[in-house]
Amino acid sequence: PLALSPSLTSSLRKTPRTRRNLNLLGSPRSSSELVPALWVPTQYAICWYAAYVWSTSEHLKTYEYVGIVVSVGILSGAIGINVAHELVHKTSSWERFLGRVLLAGVWYGHWANEHLYGHHRLVSTPYDPATSKLGESFYRFWYRSVTGTWASARAMEARRLRNTNGIIKRVISDAVFQSVIYSLAVAYGYYLSLGWYGMLFFFLQAPVAFSMLEAVNYIEHYGLYRKRRVDAPEASVLDQAHKEGNYAVIDRAYETVSPFHSWNAQHTVTNYLLLKLQRHSDHHANAARRYQVLRTFLASPQLPTGYSGCILMALCPPVWFFVMNDRVKHCHERIARVEKSGVNVFSEDFDAEARRLGSVEAALDALLAEKKKDKREKSQKKNATEVCRSQSPDNRTSPTTLAPHAMSRRREKHVQNGKKGLEAREEDGRGRGRGRKPA
Q1: Whole-angstrom Cα distance, residue 414 to residue 136?
Q2: 8 A C-beta contact, residue 113 and residue 89
């Protein structure tokens, strides 16, 4: 259903917003909403059945037990958490609740708040645990991101609830505490239905699932960073703001997030499978935009392959560094050139021209050459106007209609005609003087 969802939504995207196609919460009912929502019971049904087979079968071999756990973990991480990511970004409370239900099934419910209010503010800065650094291996990043995400979620909740009176009220209102309760409830459900082995299966597949999420986080912003503003506070102030969970201060200290700060992939299969998560630049620019209308820009950083291939490369750090480090360097060179030129490379017109010419560099060269030509023509016209005004002070002849050399010849002709007329009058005066008789 996930692979077919983009084609289904194309026919329903322009459905009028009438009372008939509204659900109880008032949001439009379409396949773009129904497909992620329907995946929630599907995900739990698959996981429960796998846990049933894993806990009740006695003839399975060791590698088969391991294979079931890893397979379910990959499914829960690649599809389940990805669908949860789509749901928690929506404004509908029902969709956000479903997203948290999915995250409870992988023991990673605290990630929802941290992603919405932490990662999207701190992305591509040194303070974001989910942004991998240039030269950092996936395994080092995994530990930093898992522990940093938990610490960040706790810091934000502590700041949000700092003025809440009463310990019981604070605990009940704590989103991180709620996520732990949800996950314990799911684990208890496995225990009631399948016994201790069922609950053990739940706890074993969860790390595999959120490790898939961290692998995707690793490749989405690898080596990309936002520049610090000139008027940014000192590092000690930012460190204190990060410790207190005041991420708005850190966000304002760095340049605005742009499509240059996320890696993208335009590969069809993984885009459909992952709800077009690979169009990550547009997702960060428009976080609430539904997956089927996310845009892609040729000028944004491009991965060498889809997420599936990149995850396999990330598991082998030397291969990942060999493929990606040069791309990161080329990406920063392009950013510097675009900033210097002042061209909006993320406009629809420029993107269409870049696709027509086959590369961003070719489109940028053509546009800069055209701008340079226009500038040269304006400069020549300005110079011609100044010459005309200097040669014709009374400005009787329009400089825009008479070329400079033509005005020069015309002025010279007037001077010559004036000299000839003066000579003729002087000659006529002398002749009259010779013929006049004295009084």
Answers
A1: 80
A2: no
pLDDT value of residue 267: 86
DSSP secondary structure letter of residue 58: S
For helices 138-160 and 317-341, give the axis angle rounded to 10 degrees: 60
Burial 318-356 (b: 16+ CB within 10 A, else e): eebbebbeebbeebbebbeebeeeebebbeeebbebbee
pLDDT in tens, 254-302: 999 999 999 999 888 888 888 899 999 999 988 888 888 899 899 999 9
Type of residue numbered 59: H
Q: Are 103 and 179 contacting, i.e. CB atoms less than 8 angstroms apart?
A: yes
Spatial separation of the C-alpha atoms in residues 175 and 129, rounded to whole Å = 19
- Give the residue-averaged pLDDT of 417-429: 60
What would the mean pLDDT of 49-68 be, rounded to a whole number? 95
Say what the pTM is: 0.80
The residue type of 103 is L
Q: How far apart are CA 168 and CA 177, in angstroms?
A: 12
**Between residues 439 and 86, which one has the greater pLDDT?**
86
DSSP track, 109-160: TTHHHHIIIIIHHHTTSTT-TTSPPTT--HHHHHHHHHHHHHHHHHHHHHHH
Whether the Cβ atoms of residue 147 and residue 110 lie closer than 8 Å to each other? no
Across 160-164, 266-270, 400-404, the highest mean pLDDT is recorded for: 160-164
Structure tokens at 342: 């002042």
pLDDT tier at 416, thresholds 50, 70, 90: low
Q: How many CB atoms lie within 10 A of CB 13?
A: 14
CA dist list (Å): 143 to 57, 130, 146, 179: 34, 11, 5, 21
Interatomic CA distance for residues 207 and 211, integer angstroms: 6
The tokens of 151 are what? 């610490």
Computed over every residue of the chain, the mean pLDDT equals 85
Residue 387 is predicted with a pLDDT of 77
Could you tell me which of 395, 428, 431, 429 has the C-alpha nearest to residue 411? 395
Distance from C-alpha of 111 to C-alpha of 102, rounded to nearest angstrom = 12
C-alpha to C-alpha distance for 409 and 403, rounded to whole angstroms: 10
Beta bridge pairs of residue 302: 264
**For the purposes of burial, counting CB atoms within 10 Å of the CB of 428, is it exposed (0-12), middle (13-18) or buried (19 or more)?**
exposed
